[in-house]
Amino acid sequence: MKNFRIRIKRISMIRIKYPVVVIIVIVILNSCQYDSVEELYPTVNECDTSNISYANDIWPIISENCTSCHSGAAASGNINLENYDQVKSAAESGKLLSVIKHEPGWSPMPKGANKLSDCSISKIENWVELGYPDN
Ligand code: HEC
């Protein structure tokens, strides 16, 4: 009789424990949700193409990705991108956007490297649309 009672007690404990375990598992699974910073705070990594400045936005992209080949007397493809006037003239001819956007028929730039980020391309496009401000 004593043994029987203990058994009943055990079974009822299992019954109580089971839903508790299920609840704990559900809570744990919910806490594993993937929260990316970009999704939570969409403005953090947004590409800001307003108030484009040649000095702050365009020149850093060109000097970092292009002038290693496009400067000096032996500039690749006879394209020099060392100063504002030269970058502007490449932009005016349409070549600048065509090569960085990898348009068919143009040698894709930067040569031998990854395409510029969408944000960098948007900034240059915006600068061209604004009429190449020297700001
Ligand atoms: C590793 C060297 C290298 C880098 C970096 C590079 N270029 Fe070039 N670029 C070349 C060469 C070489 C040519 C000549 C065409 C060819 O061989 O593809 C050229 C040609 C060009 C032309 C002329 C295309 C034509 O058909 O008239 C433009 C414009 C140009 N590059 C812009 C850029 C810009 C903008 C960047 C940076 C985003 C860049 N390049 C980065 C090597 C480079």
Largest pleated sheet: none
Kindly give the count of domains: 2
Model regions low in confidence, pLDDT < 50 over at least 5 residues: none
Number of helices: 6
End-to-end separation in angstroms reads 94 Å
Order of helices and strands: HHHHHH
Which helices and strands appear, and what pairs or packs with what?
Blueprint: H1 2-31, H2 37-40, H3 54-65, H4 84-92, H5 95-100, H6 118-129
Bound molecules: heme C.
Structure description:
With 135 residues, the chain is mainly α. It has 2 domains: 2-33; 54-129, no CATH class. The chain is built from 6 helices and no strands. α3 crosses α6. The radius of gyration is 31 Å and the shape is rod-shaped. The structure holds heme C. Residues 65-66, 68-70, 76-77, 79, 90, 95-96, 99-100, 106-107, 109-112, 116 line the site of heme C. Heme C (HEC) binds next to α5.
Structure summary:
This protein is mainly alpha-helical and 135 residues long. 54% of the residues lie in helices and 0% in strands.
Question: What keyword list fits this structure?
Answer:
binds heme C, 2 domains, 0% strand
